[in-house]
Input
Amino acid sequence: MTANGWLQIAVFFLVILALTKPLGIFMEKLFEGRGTRLDPLLRPIERGIYRFCGIREDREQRWTEYAISLLVFSAVTLLVTYLIQRLQGWLPLNPQGLGTAHAAQGAAAMTPDLAFNTAVSFTTNTNWQSYVPETTMSYLTQMLALATHNFFSAAAGIAVAIALVRGFARHSAEAIGNFWVDLVRATVYVLLPLSVAGALLLVSQGVIQNFHGYTAATTLEGGAQTIAQGPVASQEAVKMLGTNGGGFFNANSAHPFENPTPLSNLLETLFIFLIPAGLTYTFGRMVKDTRQGWALFAAMSVLFFAGVLVTYASEQAGNPMLAGLGVQSQASASQPGGNMEGKEARFGIPASALFAVVTTDASCGAVNSMHDSFTPLGGLVPLINIELGEVIFGGVGAGLYGMLMFAILAVFIAGLMVGRTPEYLGKKIEQKEVKMVMLAVLTLAASILLFSGAGAIIQFAKNSWVNPPGPAVANLNNGGPHGLSEILYAYSSGTGNNGSAFAGLNANTPWFNTTIAVAMWVGRFLMIIPLLAVAGSLARKKVVPASAGTLPTHGSLFVGLLVAVVVIVGALTFFPALALGPLVEHLLMQQHKLFSMVMFGWWS
Amino acid sequence: MIVTQESSPVTLMPLKRRRARPLFDPPIVRRAVRDSFAKLNPAHMLKNPVMFVVEVGAALTTGLAVRDAFGGAADLVFTLQITLWLWFTVLFANLAEAMAEGRGKAQADTLRKTKTETVARRCKSGNRVEEVAASQLRQGDVVICEAGNLIPGDGDVIEGIASVDESAITGESAPVIRESGGDRSAVTGGTKVLSDCIRVRITSNPGETFLDRMIALVEGAQRQKTPNEIALNIVIAGLTLVFLLAVVTLLPFAQYSVASAGAGRAPSVTVLVSLLVCLIPTTIGGLLSAIGIAGMDRVMQHNVLAMSGKAVEAAGDVNTLLLDKTGTITMGNRQAVEFIPVDGIEEAELADAAQLSSLADETPEGRSIVVLAKEKYRLRGREVAEHEAHFIAFSAQTRMSGVDLDHRSVRKGATESVAEFVRGNGGIIPRELVEISDRISNSGGTPLAVADGPRVLGVIHLKDVVKGGMRERFDHLRAMGIRTVMITGDNPLTAAAIAAEAGVDDFLAQATPRDKMDLIKKEQAGGRLVAMTGDGTNDAPALAQADVGLAMNTGTMAAKEAGNMVDLDSNPTKLIEVVAIGKQLLMTRGALTTFSIANDVAKYFAILPAMFMVTYPVLGKLNIMGLHSPESAILASVIFNALIIIALVPLALRGVSYRPMNAAALLGRNLLVYGVGGIIAPFPGIWLIDRLLGLLHLA
Output
């Protein structure tokens, strides 16, 4: 590891730290309806939307109405997205003629299962991509179906987080806000302005924005190259800011048109954490104790640095087998050393490791390097980050409500040890709350473990149409423990609504498209609905005034406790699976053993 | 008899438990061992999801062992041992519960013995009396009880006065007075009239008497899970499901790994069941109900009858404690603390006169004057009979008492009355007298003027004396985040002075029952939980409104019915102990949950490498305990998991040690002991069992 590497990481963190408070204050004012500086510009637009949609701004909803509004909104937009994809051949803004008879050679078909998977993926803020965008999606699909979801799914996440925080902040109240109002405000005031600014910044670095079809080019070597282009910058900013992660191109943020320079890379990394970090401060302001927000921020930071340390160290250490072959693995002025496989030369090891950790801490899923090519421990961190529930700053909104879920659990288990009914922020944590929290924890674990377990052993019949015949693991590029990591990663990423792929798994089959779609739907809504129920239940409660007998939830002790609960709940659930995947792979690598393309004699 | 103990109304107990029985009383243990087998009934186990999973696992491995015994399998001995220890795990948990129940059951048996069939003398219309069995008495019947009779049922004295031996209920052998009217009219069935004769109106039907309720309560027959217990059960049941998923899906992952490594075989069902049982929170699952029952039992050891576990749990959550001044914070009677002479009079002369006037005064105030004189001036009680002393007793008209002897007439009493007396004897009233009196009044005390014939000598300062150690206890309560409010009928001035001296946080002066009720409602509206004590019928509504209402056993039936606890010793200070027990109950649950989950870390390190020793020998690096074989590693973990339940039974029954301190300090300490300790403890434990298994050639 180099000083320069750590400097890059430090700069990143300090910028996030500096922006947390101002953005937090802005969002608190916005969602508490106290007016913001952008009102003169945006208030008319907001009002116009309400008038057009018939939304009554002053009418608040109970948690059930809030949840139903969210579900209806998600279901309708899901359907629209599905239809746009299926009908893209008949729709405009399709210079490549995708989905039509005169599509270029190599263009992929938009099958029903792929369209379904993609619609669910973007509706749930996952942005898992079973397709190669540049040969599958028309510009209209990208902009109208996918980019809009980048806004709406992110805004919905913010809305749910705010609703949960209102549950803590209010007392003896029935309502937790109005979903439609929260959705509009998050989109109009937060995501849109930031995306416009972000897109312009990215354009300044060379990110492209056009409606050209493919450009045929001849390379220096004389080879033929087809260069895909499109309206990239407008989608790129919100892809990061909304922790969506769905790339305009298959190579995602490793593609030079999406992420051309080290500065654009820093910006994109910052965009991921910006809103989630700001929301911790918003939370503190809303519950009238900013120390509570900083406590969550601190717990998230501890986990963030732990992840960066492990990944960066593992990637820089590289593969001992290469070192054994006499390859220089030390970083020097002339070369990066370590494990550069699957990484962009313009980013190097620290910025790639940082990006991988950040994108999985949050539920972003954009990648600027191949996680599949990371060392076993370097790849273990992204996997664990997702399996811990993506609560390390996390997805926009999703990170905050996920961390609050763990805070409730931590307070309940340890809070009893102070000799009182556990309380968090003056709200008693009782049956209803723990029931809902356990339901969410259980659902996430079940979705990841059951689907992965099935994926590890399921066999398809000779005439199967859902997947090529034979074992599902034949869809993997690698055998051995690495193959297990790949399959575990796919369902973790889906359930966790991350969307990044370890890669190495051919997931564009009806079986994987459908099961991963179910995992994404379950991971999103079976977490949100219980937490909205918690919000409703908390809002109804009275606030117990704090006293010396109250468990303090802002000190370093609580931060440590929260970190321990996040790690232990995650580790205990997934340790057996991880032990057989990345862990054993790491130990074997230390013994100079690798698994490559092992065929499965046992299966045949 | 519940508890035999010395009890006086002003006992100040430091936080300690007084036990009638040792924790492991042989008869209780014997019965508990028997019960723990009876509790294996799956219908009973279903109430405890964690242990039910263990039982199902044990049944499963039993089946496998039977199959292997006939089919012949190499690891039959291993399977048998695992099976055995899994059954032990269930039995140990049952034993813990049975032990906790056993103490209550033993008490219930003792109580039942007092419930002998008594004959009641029921009054019929006119003056006729008929003899009927006590079990035939109904609400509203009137019975006559004479000296030597057992009172046949709960009721109110409607005529007469009697001394009653209530030791059957309270364990306190000193008789109490019961009389018609007022707050001392309640009598309890099963107690014995020692003298005189009373008429009692029966207030409860057979089967609903105080004694019946008491038996049911100590026996735990109506025990319902408390809210916190239910919530905790949800968490540990949820965790059990999570671990079930982790273990069940380990099988396909293992099959995949075995296939790709081409070595070893997937773990057997026995091994998977072992891993599951080790991971699910069996420690807290096995001890949870024992902790609750033992908490109720501890309250009972303090001679407090809690009507529900919910009340005990609520006590731990209390934010505001309403304490009556008299009898709780102060001794309940005023005592002389100072002699203040007027100008020209020696303090010794005043003390002498004050003592003289009080020699025959048997009131607590009078006695305290004699005591003060003796302590301060070494004035001994004199034999006054030889002086032809004539004592004048206090009367409401004169508001004075005193003595006439040797041509002296010494008087003490209310300032105005004494002034009147002095003027009557031709004396003059020094202006100081009024000044001193006012000063004492203003400080919350009571002035008692003393005169000798025409001379005013000075004033005795009488004061409500705060019980020793109260300030410390209020400090402790404050540290725990509990606010104490003193309730008194005194004027605000007096109340403020005593409140300051006792160190309570707030006071309510000139309090009427209505004020008390309003205060409770106000606190509750602010989200606080309120505890209070009371004994009079006046208190009943407030006792019912409070979250924790501790009624005194000496109080009226109405008060006892309204509260959710009854203190058989009638000691209002007990409320503080009950709060501590409530807190301890919650802490014990939290501590064992944390410990239980923290334990899992070590078990993974023991079992996972053992499972895949052949498939991935490199995983042996996780075997940091150096356990000597896969079988022994798994067996050692299962054994440790079972033994830890037994090892923690005393902790579950006694409760974790508890000293009043603020929440942050408590959490830090308990996290260190039960969290960090819980992570570390199993490592040496499992290692030791592994060595023993090796030595005994069991694995």
